[in-house]
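Appendix C reproduces, verbatim, an entry submitted by the partner laboratory led by Prof. M.T., so that reviewers can inspect both the input and the predicted structure.
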Amino acid sequence: MKKMIFIEPKSPNFHIFSQFQIPRLGCFILGTIMKKRGWQVEIIIEEMQKINYNKLQQADIVSISTITPTAPRAYAIADKVRSMGVPVIMGGPHVTFLTEEALQHADFVIRGEGEAALTAFIDAWEGDKNYSAVPNLSWIQNGQVIHNPQACHLKDLDSLPFPDFSLSPTKPKRIAGRRIIPIQTSRGCPFDCSFCSVTGMFGKKYRHRSTENIINELRQYNDRKNFLFFYDDNFTANPALAKELLHAMIREKFKFQWSTQVRVDIAKDLELMKLMKEAGCHTLFIGFESVNPASLKEMKKKQSVEDISRAIKIIQNHRIHIHGMFVYGFDTDDRQTVKETVRFAKKARLTSTQFLILTPLPGSDLYNTLKAENRIEFDDWSLYDTHHVVYTPKNFTLAELQKAQIYSHKSFYSIPEIIKKIARFKWVDMSLAHYARNLNIIWQKKNRTFMQALDLLSCKSKAILSIKYREKVTLDDEQVALHS
């Protein structure tokens, strides 16, 4: 029996979700497909187990999935595996957009969705080794990089198998006695925010599994000891389908609670909100992104500050927790934006909040823009985790933007704020605040060298800004003289 080992590399830095080990679904879906095909399959989630390279040496193929911050680790693993004579195939968002970079470390790269491509690749692997008909595949042949055409996105998501989590020998640790299980009901996003690479990977067209198919999968986990996280980029992008699913979940009387990601426009539909609560929704993860109207316009978010405020009140009235996410660093952001954002988050009494740093991920419009403007300062992909400044902002120095994030977390999760949560008997909020506060302290200790580097670069940035200001003043003076 042939053997294929899938690897999801660990993140290089810890973050607010480090305690909540939720593997991505790609490896498990692909691994389940290969198991059904008759291959021996093992999945290694490096966050949960160490890699045994002796075991990898026994594999026929090693497949590595990577996002941008895990790319350096993925490449290091790939290099070592290939040095043992085992072929490596890579997939995931990062290598989809930077394929030729990945081919310096891998034998093959699958761009975009991998299910149909991997099946066609294995057909060729087991056959005549002719890969010319494999969609989405890239490889090097006779010194030349070959990119096969990209296939259309998978239309029938019901054709995918339910992920077999037993393919990983280790299980995620339980949180508060509950096992967190990832589920995905859809792919694609009809929105196209400038800093997001989702549409580049999965397209703008919203594709949804059938309600019957989803319910059949959910029945496997009908236990109070389970907590489900729907990985959908926008769980309610199609409100009619979302309501159909929620009605079915209510009829099933599922015992588990769950969380997912949505946009603020969910609050415009009170029926949808009521159904979500009745179906067991515990927390909504929402990208508010900014309380600066100019920044919301710049990122093409298609929402207003008023929409955000209204959504928070309605969701809280339905007794659903909110994890709010804000992003700093747009060209229209400044120090006042930071102060107003922290003030807004405190006043809104969000359960938990993340203050993120704008990050130019490959595949996003933002990355292309900043690269063209020569504003990207670091090409170490491990820093592209939304917690490190990697580009030159417009109205901050690099160090100032980084310190804005540190300040925001310190202020939102301060001792006085934690005491307020205790006074309101918000035990979940208090527990998360304590965890996040400690995380912020540890992050600063572990990133002292990085902060020193930012200070040095910021001195350079200030000098450049000063020169540009003097040039502007001179130009303005000349214009005044000419006008006179």
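The CA atoms of residues 89 and 108 lie 5 Å apart. Additional entries are available on request from the coordinating office.
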